[in-house]
Amino acid sequence: MIVKVAEEKDYARISKLRIEAYKKATGMKISDNSFLFFENDKRPGIVLFVEDESGNAISTLKGVKVTNIEELEKVFDIKIHSDLEFPVFVFEKLATAFEFRRNGISRILRIIFFEYCLKSKIKNITLTAQEDASRIKLLKKMGYKIEIADISQRKITSFDNSSRAVFAVLNCNSFERAIEVNKQDFDLKKFEFDESVKTLLS
Known about the structure:
6 helices, alpha+beta, Aminopeptidase, two-stranded antiparallel ribbon, 10 strands
């Protein structure tokens, strides 16, 4: 399997992966999936994905650098009460093909972004998830501080979820710990890094 930074030629298959993965996500119903289309991403960022031996995109994760609290609240459409130091790196639109879920494929994407954030002097990494998501236990192990997200100001949502949304923050002091946690019992040798990833980490 090879890990790449997405380019324009990859947009269609990453959009397809996102849509299929979100449809099958536990406790999640989407009334409008237009936000999952690559071409509708209005925030500039870095999109990583894993390609299998057949050339299929099987896991993807987007990272966005945010420099102020107002922008961060817009990204997640929540009210943030935490006292955060910026810049912050946001993880969003994590998607893994259903048949590859729960086997750790997305770990390699997190490891790459953690290493990128270390190099780039990012102060915090943030994400939102559902309270009952399978990855919550792993997030806590990595050192994420997790709180119920304040969605009181939301007027419209694309999701109809059976559990509450949570806001998770990982401080830069825990980045190395997070890398080590993700590497535990994980075979890095089965992944190859494309030149685009090597450039990102150089």
